[in-house]
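Q: Hi! First time asking for a complex rather than a single chain. Here are the components, and I think there are two in total. Is that enough to go on?
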Amino acid sequence: MSPETAGPGESAARGPRAGDGERERGTATLGTLLWAQTKKRLLLMYRYPLNTLSGLAMTFLFFGMVFFGGRAVAGQALTDSLGGIIVGYFLWSMALGAFSGVARSVTQESEWGTLEQLYMSPFGYGRVMIAGIVVGLLESVAWGAATLAFMLAVTGKALYLPVATVAVLTVFAVAPAIGLGFFFGGLALLYKRVENIFNVMQFVLIGLIAAPTVGVVWLRLLPIAQGSYLLTLSMQEGIRLWEFPPTELALLAGTAVAYFGLGYAAFQRMAGRARRQGLMGHY
Amino acid sequence: MTTAPEAVSDERESADGRDDASVEAEPALSVSGLSKTFGDGDEAVRAVDDVSLDVQPGTVVGVLGPNGAGKTTLIKSILGLVVADEGDVRVAGADVYDDPRPAYARVGAMLEGARNVYWRLTVRENLEYFAAIGGESPAAVRERHDALLEQLSLADKADETVNDLSRGQKQKVSLACALARNVEVAFLDEPTLGLDVESSVDLRREIRRLADQEDTTIVLSSHDMDVVQAVCDRVVIMNGGEIVVDDTVSNLVDLFRTFTYRVVVGRTDAVADADDAPLDPDTRDRLRETYAIDGFEDRGKWTAFEVSLGDPERFYDLMDELRGADLVVNAVESVDPDLEAVFLELTNGDGSTPMSDPGESGRTAGADGGDRA
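A: Yes, that's all I need. Here is the structure of the assembled complex.
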């Protein structure tokens, strides 16, 4: 046996095997898995209504405080940078949703005692997680769209909204946040109580989104920073995806894939360590 | 990875409690040389020590052991949730470590009692979710879910959130979710813990039905000896991470049977208001000497005593002796050990010291890691 390589079996074939006999097996597809994760998420949101609504209300309220408070203090300065603030807040709400969706799902499933059940899925734990992330991303985009609509209505500000461009840029911009979620989710498997890190990450994400990438170019190598830069250009100046220089898009794709991949690899490694130490089901 | 040994000993085969035809089938579960140590150096704890066992389809195996014996680590190591240091595990031929997904398609597990379901989902929503992540379309197993709910007396609770159910009902939901699809091997860790009598009986009935009617192999760990004795074909007793006993329940009980009886006798001419004890001193001395009887308990016209005969043939000698002394036998009660007594004997009461060897005739596995029956 090779415990180091004994992961969730991503490369393993699945489905009916010889000798199954009369036991029918493997009627579910990846679509079934995605729908199961979507349905569970929707039902849990519905069954925890206060949590769902308070999350949305806090997002709106926090922006209201930033906008009205900032206008009272900074006046015209805030109005001049309002477009950037709205885009940044829009991206922050989605990045935070994606990050915490991954990281908190690990801790919640562990706390609920369901993590080991998910791990034993014949789809492979990775696919179960990815399906959950896709659902979480869609949820984040939905909340982000609602938040954006709220911000535009409150401020009266007009922004460009090339839907396809914004959608693509958003996915790539948020991908590093998912990678970070994987990393901290892996830490949660090993060290359990890491909620304080989650709270700190809210501010770290603000810093990454607001990084001065125009003046300090290398900052674009940080997670989310390049996505934030391009999304701001697109929504403030109406630049379409194909109008960006290929190098800018390559950097966006590169950082997205790299941080997502690194986060996922780190998660897998930490999950393996948690299994070797017998910590998978602990909380 | 090495392959599991193909040949199994006669002892192990018969220990499955299955008929010859099923013994020849591929094991539903095959564990070979599984070991797991937590920690390093002086703090290292050998939680599972060279455990091997083959389980034939449709067998219910009870894993017993004192706290810290390694039961849960064994089950989680079998499932790959805890990575073992050495050994192989195959479920219906699929290697859990090298090729886990086909293996996971064949197993269901109830590991955390009522905890491993979503309390804010309804009973049916839980079943559908766990069927889906287990690789089955909920629509394809809808009838199975209906039947499970019926058999576990949960049909009228199908659309209630688990949070609103009693503990026993939650536990049943957990079992149902482990069986939400057609699994070949089910692992149940303390399935009856904290259940009331009625719920426990429901669960026992369902476990037996799954094995008998669906040929599902079930590995359950429990501290409830009544449950194990009632539903298990085979018992594995662990101590210090090792399997110290692997045998059928009846064989184990037989192994420790001492042919001990509680006998109540009286004088043939006794009258209801007689004051004298029915056994005279000479008879007492003779019985003490011949049968090593420790004490006699006088109750009016009756005297009771407990006698261990060792050999069932000596029972008739005792009866002849009593009749020869003009005594009438009022009652004879067999005082056979139950599984709990056997377990306590094997684990020295609390499992703090190694077991005593019950004898050469038993299929008790030694600590040498040899062929474990």
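A: The two ends of chain B are 23 Å apart (CA to CA). Let me know if you'd like any chain examined more closely.
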